[in-house]
Design a protein that fits this description.
It is a single chain. The protein is α/β, with parallel strands linked by helices. The protein has a single domain, classed as Purple Acid Phosphatase, chain A, domain 2 (4-Layer Sandwich), CATH 3.60.21. A hairpin with a 2-residue loop joins strand 6 and strand 7.
Length: about 170
């Protein structure tokens, strides 16, 4: 059975209302950290099942509710999600060792606010960072990724650009 996934990260307490429309059209929502507040996860959980890791800006209450790392299998694919992961071939400290040990098919992280999707030949995995869906940070565009997983294959990956992030009042 195919699963449609909406992948986002780095909301930093801001849930753009446009995210909700995209969330309605998928089976699961995955948030790769720097949630910022429970208002974000509460709103998303009301729409669809949610998988979440905490990020470096998340407080002790959020960290007590969510894990730093998630490792799970969905539709025949092993997924490893964490917030600070780096990118291929230069992963953050300790990540390459976890990739060697866990051998995921998909590795997901956030943190950089830079959208990137790449195949890592060394670790034989699909790397995904959805960029930042929030308005805090140096990124210029709010981004997310929608994709499908079916029979051990990730496909129909679409980058969703919500447009320029909202400007602060001057």
């Amino acid at each position: 059975m195919m699963k449609k996934i909406l992948l986002l990260s780095d909301t930093h307490s801001f849930l753009d209302p446009r995210v909700l429309g995209y969330a309605e059209a998928v089976d699961e929502i995955w948030h790769a950290g720097d949630i910022g507040s429970f208002e974000v996860t509460d709103a998303l959980e009301k729409i669809k099942p949610l998988k979440v890791v905490y990020g470096n800006i998340d407080n002790a209450r959020i960290r007590s509710q969510f894990d730093e790392d998630l490792f799970f299998t969905i539709e025949g694919m092993c997924v490893f999600m964490t917030h600070i992961g780096g990118k291929p071939p230069r992963y953050a400290k300790g990540i390459a060792e976890k990739l060697e040990r866990l051998k995921p098919d998909i590795f997901i992280c956030g943190h950089s606010h830079i959208l990137k999707v790449a195949f890592d030949k060394k670790h034989n995995l699909l790397f995904m960072n959805p960029g930042a869906a929030g308005k805090h940070g140096f990124h210029k565009k709010q981004t997310m990724i929608r994709f499908e997983i079916e029979a051990g294959e990730a496909k129909n990956l679409v980058v969703i650009e919500l447009g320029d992030k909202p400007r602060k009042n001057l």
